[in-house]
What we know:
Elements: H1 4-18, H2 22-42, H3 48-71, H4 75-89, H5 98-114, H6 123-134, H7 140-150
Amino acid sequence: xxxxxxxxxxxxxxxxxxxxxxxxxxxxxxxxxxxxxxxxxxxxxxxxxxxxxxxxxxxxxxxxxxxxxxxxxxxxxxxxxxxxxxxxxxxxxxxxxxxxxxxxxxxxxxxxxxxxxxxxxxxxxxxxxxxxxxxxxxxxxxxxxxxxxxx
Length: 151
């Protein structure tokens, strides 16, 4: 466990065990299992960036679940998912503010347009740049919508 995120996660699991916080502990163990599975699949030690991507994926899955549960009128289950999202977000980098996201979009658009790509065809290139710059710090679905509006 050389990665700093893995160390933080391991310490958080120990703290949750000491505090007998079963809900938090369950979420953290699921995250550890997902990380371990990815390491086994790829046969390598994951970097913090890899782990951040796993956490983002888990947060996204839970957000989708919250929407589904709320639509089905299962507010109790939706609240449990929201609590899990809060636990997972503790391990993500600080969220980028609106101005920072706008600046990143503008810079990426200028780079891609300098290469000659314009219009909807440039969407993939712009999103590729932004994903690297805003990984774990912004909701990429919202960023994608902003980029689409500006293209």
